[in-house]
Amino acid sequence: MLRAVFVLGVVAFIFCACAANGFCEEKKAAETNGMDLLSELLKAKGVITPEEADALKAKITGAESTESIKALVNLLKNKGLVSEGEAERFNQTLAKKPTPAQAAAKAILVVPRDQEYVQKITENVKTEVKKDIHDQVQTEVAEKASQGALQSYLAPNLPDWLQRLQFSGDMRLRIQPYYFPKSNATFVEDPNNPTQSLNTNVNRMNEYLRLRLKVEADVNDQMTLGVRLATGDQTNPVSDNVIFGNYFAKNGFVLDQAYLRYHPFADLNIWAGRMPNPWFYTDLIWANDLNFEGVAAAYKRNIVGDLTGYLTGGAFPLQDLYQESPMLSSHDKWLFGGQGVMEFKRDKEYSVKLGVALYDYESITGIENPPYLSNYNY
Q1: What are 225-276's pLDDT values in tens digits?
Q2: pLDDT tens for residues 69-91?
Q3: Taking the model in full, what pTM does it have?
Q4: CA 306/CA 345 separation, integer angstroms
Q5: pLDDT: is 188 or 315 the higher one?
Q6: What distance in Å separates the CA atoms of residue 306 and residue 377, rounded to the nearest whole number?
Q7: Is residue 81 classed exposed, middle or buried when 0-12, 13-18 and 19+ CB atoms within 10 A define those classes?
Q8: What is the 3-state secondary structure (H, E, C) of 31-76?
Q9: Fewer CB near the terminus (10 Å): N or C of the chain?
């Protein structure tokens, strides 16, 4: 219906332009003129109804020029309402018909002032058409983006090296209050630093920021390089937060992830470097922001139907004591782990997952330090 209104509006514009630009004394041609042909074409295309076609014919004055009709047909072709072949056949048919001006052998007087007026109307029509096309393109792009197809839609126009890159990131602002009951003890020693007391009765309100930026590059069909920068403290491996309230001092980025992922086939992934957590876990076992350093491998296999199995293994150095003293190198600390997981997934919304893991810590047995000493901190 909107297309029909648009067509009728453009046709009405041509009528007004012809009437404003001149005058002629002529009768309607006895045979079907160009506007009759146009109304029949629009009716056949389903753009206007038969009733609207009859109404359009009733408004025909016989003063429409061949060039104005051709211009209208070209506009309809650009709008996609008629095909290029249909427009060409229409113009050929129109060329065989005598125009009303030729039949009446009358000259049309053009008034300069009205010419400017018609040009102004033409510019308005062009603006409306451009706006309509712009809105249509925006709608199509939004639909493709909502369907996850924007990358494939834009990929042919991007260079090959840029298509191999995938960017991601996130930012989080958080306010975290601390409330303490008045019944708390007032002097409680900090177990990490017995010379200091813990805060147990002063309420606090802390503000935190976390920002992470990541890029992954497909080196080839089987190798992926990943790098992620994040805010945070180099001494805290389980948090990327920075706290506000340091006299506007700037915060920096740290290397949060840097890894190579080798996937010789779809169900096997081998990681090396500083990688995301490779285990199936909850936050009762591992912190969500913890990344692992070392090597890991993960294999997935469909067992039967909706049942899938996963096997994961890895080796991760925890502390290299040779840097502190060559005599302590035999006490280097390692984590070795293995995990088996079964997942039953009936559909995309519901699944059941059960995992069993064994984590072996080497040279990690704790020894209590003497008071105020750090002999066994390694």
Answers
A1: 999 999 998 888 999 999 999 899 988 899 999 999 999 998 999 999 999 9
A2: 776 777 677 767 667 777 787 77
A3: 0.56
A4: 5
A5: 315
A6: 49
A7: buried
A8: CCCHHHHHHHHHHHCCCCCHHHHHHHHHCCCCCCCHHHHHHHHHHH
A9: N
